[in-house]
């Protein structure tokens, strides 16, 4: 027996609701009720079930390998070859357990033209893991399953794109492939999208005022042609958006409320104040829940270095940007917004587990138990 197997069995078995059983092919199997969250072969091989989307994300991030027998399935394999591998195995089991916080009987998926279910990509470039959600704010508990709008925010390098994409896939698997939409801002296909991309990639230089106006136009078009029609199209639908108004308040304002001569629409040398940028975006839909992935500037720098390429306009001065985010979060909470901070410094599976936990705390029951 591998020397770390007793530690894995003891640790996982101690989690609430988990029981250990002999696995039919040898080793120990862990169950939450009647549902298996994974098993470990005593020679040092860990096998854990996930959705295919989660498996793909974990493999791409280097956190796991394709299953040694069923590589096309959602199962992953993980080998205990070094001390750190045992800690990673425990994190993977914890992620599998967290996923069961959404114990669904998935709705029947609409079939694609090729005969298979899954996420589609519309012509405008955003990912369609469903079709639409209703525009009314969802209620906790029972009742009508109104639409739910989730925004993922954070510094560049915090993991927003990966987490938001996986979260949309997560909902698609549980709500049905036509009921979860993954989108992003700035939204390239919407008004001013190409112009904003030129600015971010430093091909065009403009004033803060011009950029704030461009983002506001992009957002209202994104809302009117994509987000609102999707959410208002029926019940039980979720939109997950990578960046939204909070990013504009951070990057196009100075991060401060108006005071003295800077009140109203005054233009300050260091940028616009929060109220000015908020006023430009007054017509945009308010998110039901914003999740801020709070990664340190050091963590973000390492992650951006790993992906290579040139830095975009806002990928610099990360410490200053994080301070502004925290000020903007306080301001938005004062305006009635629901915002949860997620520690995003850890391993991918830990961050995603924290996102699922935040949803349990804040989202209506139909979202967390769909």
Low-confidence spans: pLDDT under 50, at least 5 residues? 101-143, 260-269
What oligomeric arrangement do these chains adopt?
Answer: single chain
* Number of DSSP helical runs: 12
Which geometry do the CA atoms define?
A: elongated
Overall average residue pLDDT: 82
What percent of the residues sit in helical stretches (DSSP H or I)? 25-40%
Largest beta-sheet characterization: 7 strands, mixed
Please give the number of β-strands: 15
- Round the Cα radius of gyration to an integer and report it: 22 Å
Gap from first CA to last CA: 40 Å
Structural class: alpha/beta
> Strand share of the residues?
15-25%
The sequence of SSEs as H and E is: HEEEEHEEHEEEHEHHEHEEHEHHEHH
Structure notes:
There is one protein chain. By secondary structure, the chain is an alpha/beta fold. 39% of the residues lie in helices and 17% in strands. The protein has helices at residues 5-13, 52-60, 83-99, 160-175, 193-200, 208-231, 245-251, 274-280, 297-307, 318-334, 348-362, 365-368, and strands at 18-22, 28-32, 35-41, 45-48, 65-66, 76-79, 120-121, 127-128, 148-154, 180-184, 238-242, 267-268, 271-272, 289-294, 339-343. A 7-stranded mixed sheet has the order 7-8-10-11-9-14-15, sandwiched between helices. Strands 1-2-3-4-6-5 form a 6-stranded antiparallel sheet, with helices on one face. The protein is elongated. The protein starts with a helix and ends with a helix. Mean pLDDT is 82; it is low at 101-143 and 260-269.
């Amino acid at each position: 027996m591998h020397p770390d197997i007793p530690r894995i069995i003891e640790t996982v078995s101690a989690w609430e609701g988990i029981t250990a059983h002999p696995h039919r092919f040898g080793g120990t199997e862990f169950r939450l009720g009647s549902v298996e969250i994974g098993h470990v072969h005593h020679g040092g091989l860990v096998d854990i079930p996930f959705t295919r989307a989660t498996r793909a994300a974990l493999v791409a991030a280097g956190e796991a390998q394709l299953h040694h027998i069923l590589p096309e399935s959602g199962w992953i394999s993980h080998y205990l070859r070094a001390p750190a591998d045992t800690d990673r195995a425990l994190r993977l089991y914890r992620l599998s357990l967290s996923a069961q916080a959404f114990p669904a009987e998935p709705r029947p998926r609409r079939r694609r033209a090729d005969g298979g279910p899954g996420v589609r990509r519309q012509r405008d470039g955003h990912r369609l893991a469903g079709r639409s959600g209703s525009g009314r704010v969802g209620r906790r508990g029972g009742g009508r399953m109104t639409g739910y709008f989730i925004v993922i925010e954070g510094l560049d390098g915090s993991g927003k794109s990966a987490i938001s994409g996986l979260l949309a896939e997560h909902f698609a698997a549980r709500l049905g492939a036509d009921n979860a939409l993954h989108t992003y801002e700035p939204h390239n296909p919407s008004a001013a999208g190409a112009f904003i991309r030129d600015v971010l990639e430093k091909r065009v230089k403009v004033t803060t005022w011009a950029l704030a106006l461009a983002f506001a136009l992009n957002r209202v078009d994104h809302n009117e042609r994509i987000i609102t029609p999707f959410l208002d199209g029926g019940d039980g639908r979720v939109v997950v958006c990578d960046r939204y108004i909070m990013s504009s308040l951070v990057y196009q304002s100075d991060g401060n409320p108006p005071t003295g001569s800077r009140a109203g629409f005054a233009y300050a040398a260091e940028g616009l104040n929060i109220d000015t940028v908020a006023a430009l975006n007054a017509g945009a839909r308010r998110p039901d829940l914003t999740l801020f992935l709070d990664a340190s500037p050091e963590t973000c720098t390492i992650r951006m270095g790993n992906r290579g390429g040139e830095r975009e306009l806002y990928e610099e001065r990360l410490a200053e940007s994080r301070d502004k985010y925290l000020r903007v979060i306080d301001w938005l909470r004062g305006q009635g917004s629901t915002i949860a901070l997620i520690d995003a410094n850890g391993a991918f599976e830990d961050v995603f587990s924290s996102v699922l936990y935040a949803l349990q705390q804040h989202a209506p029951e139909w979202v967390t138990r769909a």
